[in-house]
Each structure stands twice: as structure tokens, then as C-alpha cells.
Design goal:
globular, ten-stranded mixed beta sheet, 397 residues, alpha+beta, Immunoglobulin-like, three-stranded mixed beta sheet
């Protein structure tokens, strides 16, 4: 209050020097105060006021010096998979596949492709099978393994590396996969934590390295930039596989009856890069010719060759409600097994190879072209969203 009183008195005396200001008496105008005296008084008052305010504000230095880890916790993003669906180029990998973080930091895995994946920490437990036998009296002999398909998350997302943890299926159908678009874990103990995708196995694996706070780690921004760079490289490598795949397509063969057997290569893989593509994806044939789809030994994915002929799409899973329990996700028999096997291709009905699994020697699927003319589109039911579609141009002989 003393400082405020001094300030008011100084201002009153200063204003008295200004006879032109309204409300001043002649006697007040005689109280002269030099400008230099005003400046010195103001300076003294402001300096005292500043010192008082500093004393009133609590110091935060002790908090800064205290090792408060909570203020330094960060979140790192790992992108799950990469693809260019316009051509069917993809990379089943984690980007980046190795991330070093501090204790208490969080890793956020984000779905980045139309292909399904998991983020799974086994913690020494056996690798669970992707499919298991379905219960009796179900319309399919197989169903997705609940341990794989549904999330297993530690309490509050706090992970110490001692238990199985699983994101569940990252997939393009949130109704089936319970909306799993991302997965977060906060790591509470130093160590190295390996993980993998249960869909693609050890080929798609990564690790989180957790260190104490005195160890330098890259920032989340730097990790994000590295992920972007690695994805660009992987997709460039995938595009480079097109020439290798084209060179592996067998040449057409002439049959004794004057027809031709044409070959289509199904998919191609090398390293972390995949091409979910038919080689060639367009082919001109005649009625009576045969098309044989052959699988490359370099390809590690499963596929179907399916002609829908305008019929409804075939889902790979049938959802069976279980009330309060999670639903059963049965493998659709129409997806799993061939449809119209051995019959000539016509413009009616559904023709499908069913799910073809890689074998040694490579698997194949053949169709003879029936007495039809026109364009017949087909696709892989597993990878059509990633660009794996084909077209037969059927022309008169």
C-alpha cells in the first residue's frame, strides 16, 4: 500500500504541472515537479514492485531439478504395414521395426494397410494357431482363434513384458474386428521386447527397446520421419519386383485340339516387399482356351481366384453371435473351398479356387473358358482391397 500511495502522490504532483488539464485549480498548477523527478520516482516504484512480485511467486526450480519422469513421457507411433493399392504393392512390416524409448513412454501402433495384421507380444508363450476347429454343429469346420482375433491388453495398457499382449486383428472391417485401428502400450520396465504379426509370422516382426532416462533416444518426430523414409524405400522395392515377376510367367502352350493354355502368376514376394498382383492382370483368350493360375515359390501369401459374375461378394468370415461372449468368427466355407471346380467358366454363377495355400511344388488353379464372349473380371477375395484384381477379355476365335 505504501508503494501505491507514493505512486498516486507522484502522479498528482506531476499533473499539477499541467494547467491545461481540466479540473485543476490555480493553486494546484503552482505545485511544480520537474520531469526528471517524475522519472526517478517511477523507476524506484517499479523496481520495488517487481521485487515484491518475485518474492510472491513460488519457485519452480525444485520441480525442474527433481527427476519428474511424468513430464518427460512421450508417445511414439509405429505404422503397421504399407501399401500402394493402385498397383498392389505392399510391405508386411512394422515401420520402423525397432524403436528405442524411455521407461514410461508409450508406443502407438496405427493400421496403415487394407491387409489384416496383429501386434503381438508372446512373452515366451507358444505361437498360437491362426485358425482352430469350430465347435460342433457350426456351418464351418474352422474359425479364427479368439486368442489371435481379439485384443488382450494389460491393465491400463501398462506393459512390463511378462505376459501375452495382443492388439487383435487390425482390419478394414471394424464391425467384425471390433474397430481395431490402433493399439497402445506403455512400457514400465527397461528391456528389449520382441513382437510380431500373427498373420505373417516372424517375417513381420519388430522390437521395442526400453532404456532409462539418462540414455539418449530419438524424438517421436525423428522416428516418424524414419518410418516415412522406410515405407518409401519398401514400396519402391516392391515396384521393382514387377519385372522379376513378369519374367517368371510361363509362356502359353498350344494344345492338340487347337486351343491354348495361358498362365497367370499369382503374387510375388522378396524380403519385406510383396506384390499382391496377377501377372498379367489382363489377358485376351478365346472360348475353349484354358487359363492356369500358378503360384510363385517366392510368394508367401494365400490367395483366391474368384469370378463373382455379378453376385454378392463372399466374406471370408461368418459372424455367429454369442450373446454376452465374443462372437465366433467362422471361416466361410464358400471362401475356404472351391466353387464350381472343373466346370467351364460361364457368365453365370460363382467360380472360385477357394483359399489356395502355398505348397512345394507350387499350387495352381485352372479354368476352361466356356462358350461366352465378353469381359470377365475376377479378384483375390483376400487382397482385392489392396488392388489384386484381374480381367479376362474373351473374344471370338
Amino acid at each position: 500500500m505504501f508503494f501505491m500511495h507514493s505512486f498516486r502522490e507522484t502522479v498528482r504532483r506531476a499533473t499539477a504541472h499541467c494547467p491545461g488539464w481540466p479540473g485543476l485549480t490555480k493553486q494546484q498548477t503552482r505545485l511544480l515537479l520537474k520531469p526528471s523527478m517524475i522519472q526517478r520516482s517511477l523507476f524506484v516504484f517499479l523496481a520495488a514492485l517487481t521485487s515484491a512480485c518475485v518474492l510472491l511467486v513460488p519457485s519452480t526450480r525444485a520441480v525442474d531439478d527433481d527427476d519428474d519422469d511424468e513430464d518427460r513421457h512421450q508417445t511414439y507411433t509405429v505404422l503397421v504395414g504399407a501399401e500402394d493399392a493402385t498397383v498392389g504393392a505392399g510391405a508386411p512390416a512394422f515401420f520402423p521395426d525397432t524403436v528405442t524409448i524411455h521407461v514410461g513412454d508409450t508406443v502407438h501402433w496405427q493400421r496403415n494397410t487394407n491387409e489384416i495384421h496383429t501386434v503381438t507380444f508372446l512373452a515366451g508363450t507358444p505361437l498360437p494357431p491362426f485358425n482352430v476347429p469350430a465347435p460342433p454343429d457350426q456351418p464351418s469346420p474352422l474359425m479364427r482363434n479368439p486368442v489371435v482375433i481379439f485384443p488382450t491388453v494389460p491393465a491400463n495398457g501398462q506393459y512390463d513384458g511378462t505376459t501375452y499382449a495382443n492388439a487383435g486383428i487390425f482390419g478394414p472391417d471394424p464391425d467384425i474386428f471390433q474397430g481395431v485401428e490402433s493399439f497402445d502400450l506403455t512400457f514400465t520396465q527397461p528391456g528389449t521386447y520382441p513382437y510380431l504379426c500373427l498373420v505373417h509370422g516372424v517375417r513381420m516382426s519388430g522390437e521395442i527397446i526400453v532404456v532409462d532416462h539418462h540414455v539418449h533416444v530419438s524424438s517421436p518426430g525423428a522416428v516418424a520421419a524414419e518410418a516415412k523414409r522406410l515405407i518409401e524405400e519398401a514400396l519402391e522395392d516392391a515396384l521393382g519386383l514387377f519385372g522379376l515377376a513378369d519374367a517368371e510367367v510361363p509362356a502359353p502352350t498350344q494344345n492338340d485340339d487347337g486351343t491354348t493354355t495361358f498362365y497367370v502368376l499369382v503374387g510375388f514376394s522378396a524380403g519385406e516387399s510383396d506384390v499382391v498382383h496377377f501377372f498379367p492382370d489382363e489377358l485376351t483368350v478365346h472360348p475353349g482356351d484354358t487359363v492356369e493360375w500358378v503360384f510363385s515359390m517366392e510368394d508367401v501369401d494365400n490367395h483366391t481366384i474368384t469370378f463373382l459374375n455379378g453376385n454378392a461378394d463372399i466374406p471370408d468370415l461368418l459372424v455367429v453371435d454369442q450373446g454376452q461372449d465374443p462372437p465366433l468368427l467362422l471361416v466361410n466355407p464358400d471362401f475356404l473351398f472351391p466353387l464350381n471346380p472343373g466346370e467351364p467358366l460361364t457368365g453365370d454363377g460363382v467360380y472360385s479356387s477357394g483359399k489356395v495355400v502355398q505348397t512345394d511344388p507350387p499350387a495352381s488353379f485352372s479354368l476352361t473358358i466356356g462358350n461366352i464372349i465378353g469381359d470377365e473380371p475376377y479378384k483375390c477375395l483376400l487382397h482385392d482391397a489392396s488392388g489384386m484384381t484381374g480381367l479376362l477379355h474373351i473374344v471370338p476365335r
